[in-house]
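Async update (no meeting this week)

Hi team, since we skipped the sync, here's where things stand on the single-chain job. The sequence we agreed to prioritize is pasted below, unchanged from the tracker. I ran it this morning and attached the output directly underneath so nobody has to dig for it. Comments welcome in thread, and please keep replies under the output.
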Amino acid sequence: MDTMPDKLAIQYYDEPTQSVVGIRYGQYAQDIRKAAGLLLHRDPDIRGKKVCLLARNSYDFLVNMFSVMLTGAVLVPLNLMKNWEELHYEIDLVEPVYILHDGSYAAREGALAETYGDRLLPADGYKDSQWSDGCADCPDREALSLILFTSGTTGRSKGVMLSQKNLFAPMNFFCLPFEDIARQTGWDTSKFRSLTVLPMFHVAALTSSISWAIMGNTVNLCNDARYFYRDLAAMDSEVMAVVPVLLQSIHKDVVRGRRDRLGSLKALTCGAATMDPGMMKDLQDAGFFICQMYGLTETVGDGTWNNSQDVADIHSVGQKDPWREYKLDDGELCIRGDSVMMGYYKDPEGTAEVIDPEGWLHTGDLARIDERGYIYLTGRKKNVIILGSGENVSPEELEALLDKCPAVTESLVREENGKIGALVWCGQGGEAKQAEVEGYVTELNRTLPLYKRISAVHIAAQPLPRNAAGKLVR
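Output:
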């Protein structure tokens, strides 16, 4: 940051003044040092201690994120969307010395201040700090630096332990897609500005804020998806990471002839689900470049990326990180390398279940790899339905088929009394589409083996629940 002090680092829309605020890298670095200095002034022995960060997407979030790690303390970003029971569990698990917060969670949940009042610190407290020397001496790259809680689809979230070595291992890999976009399109990606809508406690947003700083590009912050269009209009942005729900909204604008609402946006990176070929073609025809990415919290988001604009490759999550090792173990994708986590916090049994003695992380994703090295995900190992007959059924396979029904917006396949059942969301007034869906399923069943046939269809009264990463909660 100090090598490019005059380059624009961060922009955000300021509500009180209703204007865009820009922060340059020189100021960014100075504020990080001030925040780190304040923490060290409060606790000179803070190295190795936990500091939670509970805040919306904001400049203060980024400043505190870097400053905590700079002191040698362990950063623990928390999910603002979780209920008190879940958040209370996570805070008690890590036992932080401080909780840096912006007041938004405390405003709706008084128990936060009642329970942890003596440990709460304002996230913007660094602004009045007189201490600016907050650098730890030679941080140990192997030591614990960050704990990210998974947005698990079942059971309690797990605390993923990451060292600085883990955190920075995939940064070169994260920069590669943009070098490739430049080669394919001729665009000057060194001037790209990224609109960050995904929550910063999520691995994708957190790591991209680091990789963009490494590249010296600008991050435009959106603190609430409800203000997406306002912020996009206020801050020119060429690239954005999206989850499926946001991608669908962008697609609707395109097909309805409202491409101009999206401004200078031209590149979209997407994870969490496979894209529909028709959607991809519509977006490409509107001038968008689509990059699909796959990664896990347990690998700091490291995994694969797919920059192929050929619709034939759309169902692939892409090719491997050249700095990691990959293999299939009984159909399960496994990854080994410096980006693989240290383990789950206070959960050696859970760690042993996913990292074997040879250091391979078992992702839980079933996959196949073609002759070009393209990886295709075929389902989740834990989601596989084992019927009484001993037959295995991948719910994701059937969900992909159900989602092709024009009346179906999204679906969830599950076991019901030893048979296959499906819960489908058809939008508002979906009950009126039950006959259409059942007719589609009848025809679909004729193409399926007996054990895969769907025996019951239920119309959901509301959208199916998803976690913070946009994945279905099963």
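Quick observations from my side:
The domain at 168-381 is CATH 3.40.50.12780 (Rossmann fold).
DSSP finds 14 helices and 25 strands in the chain.
Reply here if anything looks off.
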